[in-house]
Design brief:
The chain is α+β, with helices and mostly antiparallel strands and 326 residues long. It has helices at 33-37, 96-100, 109-129, 149-152, 190-202, 214-221; strands at 39-42, 47-52, 79-84, 86-90, 93-95, 157-158, 171-172, 175-176, 209-212, 250-253, 256-262, 271-274, 279-291, 298-311, 318-320. It has a six-stranded mixed β-sheet with strand order 6-15-12-9-11-10. Strands 1, 4, 5, 13 and 14 form a five-stranded mixed β-sheet that branches. The chain is extended. The two termini are 52 Å apart. Mean pLDDT is 85; it is low at 241-247.
Length: 326
């Protein structure tokens, strides 16, 4: 059936106002579970340093003869570690004309771009902190980089069955300055997770968080140690909020309860088994905004942060090294 002759329809009309919503719908995720849950400290130099120590191994033969002279125990020196601070930036730039026009969803395009780039900067930090990147001092031709989680974890490392050739980072002058060699990826299985938790516990750690990418979050949901796929009922008999659980949140091992956390920005080929008490994001220059000089009919700003990752004692944590991601 067609419209009656002479009917003016929208696709013929001239001058209809556009229907553009004043709400800008942004889907990009902002959760940064590592950065948001570790301690934050202060760095005072480009080369940030700290010390670690450990107690002597427990002895079952610490028995002395009655009346005997005391024997001095040789003191163990502390270990000195370091990481380089990394500069991360974002630079929004908007023309004068664009700032002058009436934009839908924001009063000022420049302010909107500054806020958006600030959120992007925080995501970049999470990605660097949870990467395999090695530490590099930088020079006039290359940027300094901090060593990420994947480079710092070198004591409690479990390799999947297929991954015989992969090697972790090497500590040189207190920092992991050698690149990680991944080798062949293997499937993330429960026995490897249990082994890694055991290694951390034996070294004195209490790894309460298992941090994984999306694919291996689904893998972990099938582990037997998850137990039941629901949460306890409240006193009134109703299930607690979020009680229909399609994914595992908690893993119960012989050494405690471990929260399984999905991280969109980490190196997804690593499974990090973390005692968060022993990690710190230390900042030399906090996130700041600086207006840049005008060189024409536009406005620019520099968003900058200089920071590093302090591994206060990596023996408390571990990783399942180089797992498949699909």
């Amino acid at each position: 059936m067609t419209a009656p002759t002479g009917t003016l329809q929208t696709f013929q009309a001239v001058g209809n106002r556009e229907d553009l919503s004043d709400v800008i719908n942004e889907i990009s995720p902002m959760d940064t579970p590592f950065y948001s849950n570790v301690s934050h400290g202060k760095a005072s130099s480009h080369l940030h340093e700290w010390q670690t120590d450990a107690l002597a191994a427990a002895s079952a033969s610490n028995a002395v003869i009655e009346g005997d002279d005391a024997t001095t125990n040789t003191a163990d020196v502390t270990s000195r570690f370091s990481n380089y601070t990394q500069i991360s930036t974002k630079v929004p730039r908007v023309s004068g004309t664009q700032r002058a026009v009436n934009s839908a969803g924001r009063r000022d395009e420049f302010s909107y771009q500054i806020a958006k780039r600030g959120r992007e900067l925080k995501r970049d930090m999470e990605s660097s902190l949870t990467s395999r990147n090695k530490a590099a001092a930088g020079d006039s031709a290359s940027a300094a980089t901090l060593a990420g989680l994947g480079a710092w974890l070198f004591t409690n490392v479990v390799k999947p069955t297929l991954n015989a050739s992969g090697t972790t980072a090497v500590i040189t002058s207190g920092a992991p300055t050698t690149a990680v060699s991944a080798g062949t990826a293997g499937t993330f299985i429960e026995s490897d997770l249990k082994s890694c938790i055991r290694l951390c516990w034996t070294e004195g750690g209490d790894p309460g968080v298992v941090m994984v990418g999306a694919f291996n979050k689904m893998q972990a949901s099938g582990f037997a140690g998850i137990g039941t796929q629901f949460r306890p009922a409240q006193p009134n008999g109703e299930m607690s909020p979020g009680s229909i659980v399609g994914a595992a949140d908690l893993y119960i091992s012989d050494f405690g309860t471990h929260q399984i956390v999905a991280n969109r920005f980490q190196n997804s080929a690593e499974v990090y088994v973390l005692d968060l008490e022993y990690w710190s994001v230390d900042v030399l220059r906090p996130i700041q905004q600086m207006d840049l000089a005008k060189t024409g009919d536009s406005d620019r700003a520099l968003l900058l942060v200089e920071y590093t990752l302090a591994s206060l004692n990596q023996k408390a944590s571990g990783k399942v090294f180089n797992v498949t991601t699909s």
